[in-house]
Amino acid sequence: MATKIALVTGGSRGLGKDMALSIARSGTDVIITYRSKAAEADEVVKEIAAAGRTAVALQLDMSDFGSVLSFAEKLKDTLTENWGTPHFDFLINNAGMGATVPFLQVTEEMFNEFLNVHFKSVYFLTQQCVPLLRDGGRIINISTGTTRFSNPGYSVYASMKGAIEVFTKYLAKELGSRGIGANVVAPGPVETDFNNAMVKSNPQIKTALSSLSPFGRVGAADDIGSVVAFLCTPGAKWINGQRIEVSGGINS
């Protein structure tokens, strides 16, 4: 049986790191990307290697559209060099950025950066990667609970993620003939360093968000990584075109 290989963008920290580690623990090799923190990415590669899987880290800046268009060749070379094949199995579009900005304070520059990172670059990176995906592969796009419920200050971020959710339905429809499935995982508030560690570093915000979930807590990285890893297993083979919210029932 051919070795399964996953690509996790933004896999050097936070949710992406746990996704990469969870996928590796399930028996899949992993390529992660990082924007600027090569040392952190190398540590994740070492952790995956310690778990008995092969891993590689590649630099990719989702805000630089030109680098996104050239990434597929770098990916193809990496796959061939390390696995002897130009193909991989699972694309997890996780890389992102965060900011809490009221609608009336959003600038065009900020809007365009969010557009590039969270929608435009995801759209075209996926287009570049699909020829390298094996038939029967999977695409998992990371969205947010704030496409279902509104949180002031997230109008730009959530709007781009809403576009990703629509995009995912079209991927499922148009790639189904190759057996390639596409799904969305939408986390609720999670205690990581995302968005300047807004939840992790602010006890009052953490307490308020915890009260919105029947479980009485915010999420942890492995609450999300385990679901993404499951979607990369045969047990999830009949899940397609779905938005899976992983939020502890917040605002339910």
Brief synopsis:
The chain is α/β, with parallel strands linked by helices and 252 residues long. It has eight helices and seven strands. The chain is globular.
Description:
The chain is α/β, with parallel strands linked by helices. Helices cover 44% and strands 17% of the residues. The protein has helices at residues 14-25, 38-50, 65-83, 108-129, 155-175, 194-197, 203-210, 221-231; strands spanning 5-8, 29-34, 55-59, 88-93, 133-142, 181-187, 243-246. Strands 3-2-1-4-5-6-7 form a 7-stranded parallel beta sheet, with helices on both faces. The mean pLDDT is 93.
Shape: globular
Mean pLDDT metric: 93
Across the major sheet, the strand order is 3-2-1-4-5-6-7
What is the helix fraction of residues, given as a range? 40-55%
Q: List how many beta strands DSSP finds.
A: 7
Structural class by helix and strand composition: alpha/beta
Percent of sequence in beta strands? 15-25%
Instruction: Detail the poorly predicted runs.
Output: none
